[in-house]
Design brief:
The protein is α+β, with helices and mostly antiparallel strands. It is built from 11 helices and 5 strands. α4 packs antiparallel against α5, α8 runs parallel beside α9 and α9 packs antiparallel against α10.
């Protein structure tokens, strides 16, 4: 078994040496040609080192055949020993080089993965920047168009409002007509206010107009009144759940516009539903300094998950009709953002959509006493 191991070890050492020689000498065509290199020749010559010892043993010991045979066998067994040591040393060097190569390959792969990751991030950032640039350009064009349109729109609207005021003064004796004229004048003024506010929202700037804090419940009642006919024509019930809250630091026409837009979207979403219902809720005010919360809920299908994260971005709409540009929720969020308000989407329990509008409470005044913020009551 020792002889077999020795021969196998020599073969392993020679194969390793041949491989090393082939890598070191590009001109080598085969393992046989690698054997002719000086290093390999020295290894073969080193196998003759037991011959002097064999000669000494044969000279000192009796000249018997058995002794010579034993000495020859020992010399044969010891002859490959230097080659085995050298082959083992070269094998360890080869393993070390392979380990170093694998480590370098791993580092290169890590660097390549890092480059791929950074490249993908840069690509995503470039795509996001491109989308933002396109969006900014579209909003700029929309703002320019809206500015021109509002200028042309406000002129005849002012004439109509002025004429309505004159008619109200002239027709004082007709109560029914005066009531209709007053409602028309109110809506025309609302249209004028919301037109200027929408333009400010598109420009992302808050105007210097002075306004009074508004009563949320009044704005909700006006929105319900204006949208009740449209909801009834589509077979939708519109339920208002009011509560006592402080005034909010948002113009009444802004609150009304946001709520009207949400009600209009809800009516469209409930198209063709048998038990279609919209709840317009004003949550009771319990914590001093907290936001006043309005909820607009419906029992429709709700917003698709694919667009929920982008609901308040411009030109995002779940409607397939060309009449929808996807600007309603974007304008609502922009309007509220101008006055430190917020709007978010939630999934309603039992199915449907729920839009939560948060409005900042106004500071207490003589008309809105301190009890709203301290939790007391007025006399």
């Amino acid at each position: 078994m020792e002889i077999a191991w020795g021969i196998g070890g020599v073969s392993l050492g020679l194969d390793t040496l041949n491989l090393t020689a082939m890598q070191a000498v590009p001109e080598a065509k085969s393992g046989r040609q690698g054997m002719k290199q000086p290093g390999n020749l020295a290894i073969w010559v080193s196998g003759a080192w037991p011959l002097p010892l064999l000669a000494v043993v044969c000279w000192l010991l009796p000249a018997s055949t058995s002794v010579r045979v034993v000495a020859a066998i020992l010399a044969i067994l010891l002859a490959p020993f230097p080659a085995l040591l050298y082959g083992r040393h070269r094998h360890r060097e080869q393993l070390a080089r392979e380990a170093a190569t694998r480590e370098e390959i791993a580092q290169v792969r890590l660097q390549l993965d890092t480059v791929r990751y950074r490249t993908s991030r840069l690509r995503e950032e470039l795509q996001a920047a491109d989308r933002q640039a396109r969006l900014s350009h579209q909003l700029t064009l929309l703002g320019q168009f809206t500015a021109g349109f509002m200028h042309e729109f406000n002129n005849p609207l002012a004439i109509v409002a002025g004429r309505l005021e004159v008619l109200l003064d002239e027709r004082k004796d007709d109560p029914e007509l005066c009531a209709d004229l007053a409602e028309m004048l109110k809506e025309s003024r609302y249209m004028s206010n919301i037109a200027s506010t929408l333009l400010q929202a598109l420009r992302r700037e808050r105007g210097g107009t002075v306004y009074e804090p508004s009563v949320p419940l009044t704005a909700l009642e006006e929105a319900q009144k204006t949208q009740q006919h449209m909801a009834a024509s589509h077979g939708v019930r519109l339920i208002l759940e009011g509560a006592e809250t402080p005034r909010v630091d948002v113009p009444e026409h802004v609150v009304g516009e946001v709520v009207r837009g949400l009600l209009s979207n809800a009516v469209d979403a409930l198209e063709g539903r048998a038990d279609a219902t919209i709840w317009l809720c004003l949550e009771p005010y319990r914590t001093a300094g907290a936001k006043v919360v309005i909820r607009v809920e419906d029992n429709g299908p709700g917003a698709p998950e694919s667009i929920r994260e982008h609901l308040f971005e411009p030109f995002v709409s779940q409607s397939t009709g060309r009449e929808r540009l996807g600007l309603g929720l974007f304008l609502a969020a922009s309007l509220l953002d101008m006055y430190d308000g917020r709007i978010r989407y939630e999934t309603r329990e039992g199915g449907g959509a729920s839009f939560v509008v948060e409005l900042p409470p106004a500071r207490f005044t003589r008309g809105q006493p301190y009890h709203w913020f301290a939790g007391g009551t007025t006399e």
